[in-house]
Design brief:
12% of the residues lie in helices and 36% in strands. The chain has a 6-stranded antiparallel β-sheet with strand order 3-2-1-6-4-5, with helices on one face. Strand 2 and strand 3 form a beta hairpin. The chain is globular.
Length: 98
């Protein structure tokens, strides 16, 4: 893997997925620099399992009480969109199933 998504500010290649209003953003987990963004609508047709939390900030783990929704992305997208519509940052965390 190349460092195509490495942060231009600090060089770290660890990212976090954020929803802000109508945008889906990859953010640097170390310094919070926005690396790349697309429309949240581009993500809506996915069955990928994830959890959505109110974002506690770059590199910080959200607490359980910050949970907005959990499940297949296409089923929880409305809840994510509603929570992000006022400018609240929503962190998406992949739920890996064994």
């Amino acid at each position: 893997m190349t460092n195509m998504l490495a942060c231009p500010s600090c060089g770290l290649d660890k990212t976090e997925s954020i929803v802000h209003r109508g945008s889906y953003i990859l953010r640097c987990a170390a310094c919070g620099e926005m690396i790349v963004a697309t429309s949240f609508m581009a993500m809506l047709d996915s069955d990928h399992q994830c959890s959505a939390f109110i974002d506690p900030g770059p590199g910080k783990c959200p607490s359980p009480e910050m949970l907005v929704a959990r499940g297949p992305f296409r089923q929880i997208a409305t809840a994510i969109s509603a929570a992000a519509s006022d400018g609240t940052l929503i962190r998406l965390i992949s739920d890996v199933r064994d």
